[in-house]
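Supplementary Text 2. Reproducibility record for the structural model of the 446-residue chain.

All settings were left at their defaults, and a single model was retained for analysis rather than an ensemble. We include the record here because the model underlies the residue-level annotations in Supplementary Table 4.
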Amino acid sequence: MASIRILRVCGLLRNSTRNIPFINSDARNLFTTNPSYLLKTHMPLICNTRNSTFFVNKSADELWKGVTSVSNAGRRRGRAKGLARKRDLNRGQLIGVGKIPIQFPGLNTPVFRGKELLKQEKMAIDPERQEKLAKIRQSYQKSKRIKLSPLERGWTSVHLGGRKIGPPDPVGEDTFEGFETWALENKMVNCMSGNLGRKSRQSIFVVTGNGNGLAGFGLGKAPAMKTALKIAKNRAGQRLMYIPRYKEHTVLHDFFTQFGTTQLFIKKMHEGYGLVCHRAIAVCCKAIGIKDLHCKVEGSKNLQHIIKAFFIGLLQQKSYQKLADEKRLHLVELKPENGNYPVVIASPLQVRKPEEVPSHENLDLVHHVLNDRIPVQRKKYPPFYTKLPSWQTKLVKLERLRHFDETRLRLVAEYGALHSFLTEKYPEAKVRQSKSKSNKDEETEE
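Retained model, structure tokens:
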């Protein structure tokens, strides 16, 4: 019964091969002549396999692309700044050399050494192999950023604004000795072209100066940042302007300037005041050599408009001699730090007589340079605690000590001690010195 069943199976298989139209005649003859061949195990030379692991299914280039690529939209938004770079993970690894060194003739050693045929054998282990590999791979890593001092870092740690980029390039034999350039603005601008589509460029706005009244600004655009920096600072060097200063530390007088919707209110300040202004204006003051200034920016905060308005105001300043000639009066300076002692700083060729000066004429310099327009000062609101009952109680307690320090200084300045006009009449009201102080005075006299 078993043999009959085997013959039936062979017959079915033979008939099935005859009915298949796309099998060639050689294969059909092979199966029909020897049906037992179908019952034998067939071992193909190449096994058709399906990759089921992700790391085997993808090539190395595809895997690296997933790590080192970014979309075009993300690239426009700056996501490609800290992008990882493709690295050679086999750097420092030699073919045929592993943790256990083995000599393979024809792979890592020659086949013959003289007339001797080399054999495969184990070699001495190098204890410093792992350290050498680590050193080689560390040298391949990205170099660390140079740490800058806070004064050289600019306004922020990442962006270019506020950083020094060196003097402009020399023009022929003329060099810009003593000049320094600061980057004020760095941004990416786009424009549409007919053949390239959206075209991106770097736009850099800089200011250069020697710190002695000579300064200029420039704008450079280029696809590469280095090229844009070079164009901008060279243009700034070609547009230098001389800015007059008062005693080489501040502006000549207060002024108001405007560019577009940006308004600047500049105030002349005394020595030691410092630069209280916008950070871009502070950099321009360093380039010019201005050390004391107060500036209030109103309206648009467009950085290029702020710089242009500032330079327009500086160039429109009037010299003291010109102001004296306009009014035909002596220009006198009164400083609170000098006790308001009058100092004549400019005189006209022809001075008006007192009868020629009308009584209603405004002789204030600030009113004259601002064309009788005075900026509105914001009212200072009293602190919240002045409305509390405890504040009134404190005022009552301190009433007898009001102006104590000012009165003490004034009496010492006028009488040499804490005396008043009643001291001669009432000598018992004199302030008695302490014994320790009187003893010290006697020791110094001896």
